[in-house]
Structure formats: C-alpha cells, structure tokens
Amino acid sequence: MLLKRVYQRADNIKKPRNVIGFAKDIPQADMEKLLLSSITVPDDAMQQLALARSVAVRDYLATRSVPMDRLFIGASKLSASAGTGQGGAPHVQLELAVD
User: Closest Cα to residue 16, out of 30, 2, 37?
Assistant: First the structure.
C-alpha cells in the first residue's frame, strides 16, 4: 500500500513506537492524520494558486481567438474562510464585457 510506504519513509513526524523503539503499525486513518499534520503550506499559497489558475484561464481564452489585449487578470481576493476547511470553498468570478 502506497500510504504505508510514505508513512514509513516520513522522518518529519512523531510516529508511535513499540517497546523496542520501532514505529508501530497504526490504522490507515491515523497514518493519514499524522502525514497531513506534517505538511506545511506557505501563507501565500492560496494567492499563488489563484494567480496560476487565472493565468491558465487567460491563456486558454487566448487560444480560442480572444485577443490578448482584451484579457485582464484582476487582483485576487481571499475570503476569511477560504482554505480553512470551514465552508469556504474556493471559487472564481469571471466577468465578460462586450463592447
């Protein structure tokens, strides 16, 4: 199982040990919790993700014959609950204007 191999190789987490000192086998859900808790995410990760997604959309529209001079990327705004797992689902707002 891949999760177990990742857990065994992870040296940045405090694993439960047996009497001899070897890492104990623990349930899959506990392995996931320990591994997920060890992941650090930079503060600006959501901003970087928002920018990367907007650039991807802009580039896609440019390949569909939308002139680049008509495509703009606005500043992204993060809501207080975005990325906290508390109902703040990521979303995007796309505005189209016709001259």
Answer: 30
